[in-house]
Write a structure and sequence with these properties.
ATP-binding, kinesin binding, alpha/beta, about 40% helix, 5-stranded parallel beta sheet, Rossmann fold, 2 domains, ATP binding, endoplasmic reticulum, P-loop_NTPase
Length: about 300
Amino acid sequence: KRSRRWMIIRKVSCEFKAPNYATVYADLKNKLFGQHLASRIILKSLNEFMSNDNPEKPLVLSLHGPSGTGKTFVSQLIAKNIYKEGMNSKFVHFFTSTLHFRHSSLISTYKSQLQQWIKGNVSNCERSMFIFDEMDKMHPGLIDSIKPFLDYHHKVDGISYRKSIYIFLSNDGAESIIETALDFWRTGRDREEIELKDLEESLSFSIFNNEKSGFYHSSLIENNLVDFFVPFLPLEYSHVVQCIMAEMKIRASKGNGKPNLDVAHKVASELQYLPKIERAFSSTGCKTIQKKLNFYT
């Protein structure tokens, strides 16, 4: 018996909404901190893709960077602004490598199942979205099975895949991103001076040649099918404080206390920072702030 997650859904109406880019911009500005590059790329690529009634290929984004920097949040943000039910939409499909693709002995089976899943769901909704988390833990070669759906094909077996969206999430490439950010920090340059050209080539190279990565020697990279490798920069102390204040505002809206800047600084100061001497960046980003905040509130 196939597990429920691999069953192909029956024909249903594809209920997506045209994104309100003012709302997307506001969310990125007010909820995603320290990520000028990611914000700019996401807003522009989503705008261009969703406003095109006849794109040449699907939108393919690969989000890379240290833990806790906003990769998962961005994928959720995109879903929220395209589908009425956001991540709960039946048209958003989320895969985690360590859960859905655990066993290396079943790669052939996974490839077949994944192809059938995408084919079945895109045939039901051409604006389907597929999110692959933990790409750095995926078995190399597996993701190449979806190459035909990401390529510049008018149709594959009678089905057009050009309006679907694929998002890959990975900590892979974090070291090169941190190193670049650290170079800017050490020389006193503003992190917002960092441009995509400073990171993209080294990022794609390190991912492509990492034997433990799901993108190792991947045909998706060889054939330039990833539209953007989106770098997420490590967060500085001030960004962590912003994260904490944002979380406190959410809690305040539910009647749980008020935002307190002193508490935010206290929580931020207790987190770990790297490198050990400079302590320039949070080692966990904003990932652990909720538990830390619970202690003080």
